[in-house]
């Protein structure tokens, strides 16, 4: 029988399109973690550049390397959650796969948690650390605004709550896992907001490096989603984030509808055809936006995109009929004035559209 052992520290590395950074990452961890029994878990979301292959190639000769490959899903937070939950080690660390975080402070982070902190966070903003690697002034500004908001909500005095570089006991992660929102980018913030009592945070400064290779995946959609996460928390998680996004897209669709209708009337179309055209344009726009934003982690492509579009238009068409029907009925029964009746109709319409498209279109 061979002796089985689990390492003391699992280092979870979320990666998407990081193929050239995989081997340097392992080498960096090897140098930084001398004397610690560690493993690294690369969590790859089916990157087209062969990130998972690079990790597996190393894993064949180095038992400290593991690869978790997810198919059909995308998302930094959920990748981190699944990596951390796949660990049997007493401690887990999370670090970016592009060598922007300074792995040499991992031993000090481990010491901090062993000494009693709930979580050790690598911070770019405490004395000694800096944000040199943050690309543009715009990003630095957005980052500052987000930090202020995050601190207020988490009730923790932490200088870098948006950090993606931290270490905690695996059991604590396990305890908080059920409460995590799991969407978007900000897994640390999610952990801090999910803890029933404020966590004891130890911050360790480091210098944020420029990206080693490849490009950042933090785009404008990720930021919109981040804002949505706050709305979600403010509502106490009662209303699903997806529903909020869906409803906002729907609201935007009303303007698209009106604009397209105006344009086609101006082009000489009659009221009926203009209204039909406006509705179709709005539906297509809503489908596209929902596919890119609301359901960006399960985006439909190829044939499934077109099938989804047809189904979405059918669902929303029925929703519109229900909407008009309900508004009309309420109005005629005299239970509501015109505005209230159409508001009720629209509310029921959007719930219908959401419920049915969530189960049929993006499932
Ligand atoms: N599995 C998986 N799936 N990994 C992902 C995904 C995804 O959908 N999106 C990004 N990653 C990985 C990247 O490959 C990288 O290793 C890490 O997550 C961070 O992504 P970057 O695209 O490099 O993010 P950044 O440099 O712009 O963001 C940095 O600043 C943020 C704070 O503003 C990082 O340090 C983040 O961790 C940090 O939250
Ligand atoms: Mn990065």
UniProtKB/TrEMBL annotation:
GO molecular function list: dolichyl-phosphate beta-D-mannosyltransferase activity
Entry's transmembrane regions: 243-260, 266-287, 308-331, 343-362
Pfam families registered for this protein in UniProt: Glycos_transf_2, GtrA_DPMS_TM
Annotated source species: Acidiphilium cryptum (strain JF-5)
GO CC terms, sorted: membrane
SUPFAM superfamilies per UniProt: Nucleotide-diphospho-sugar transferases (SSF53448)
Listed name of the protein: Dolichyl-phosphate beta-D-mannosyltransferase
Superkingdom in the source lineage: Bacteria
Gene3D superfamilies: Spore Coat Polysaccharide Biosynthesis Protein SpsA, Chain A
Primary localization class, coarse: membrane
Topology within the bilayer: Multi-pass membrane protein
The GtrA/DPMS transmembrane domain, residue ranges: 246-362
Residue span, Glycosyltransferase 2-like domain: 10-176
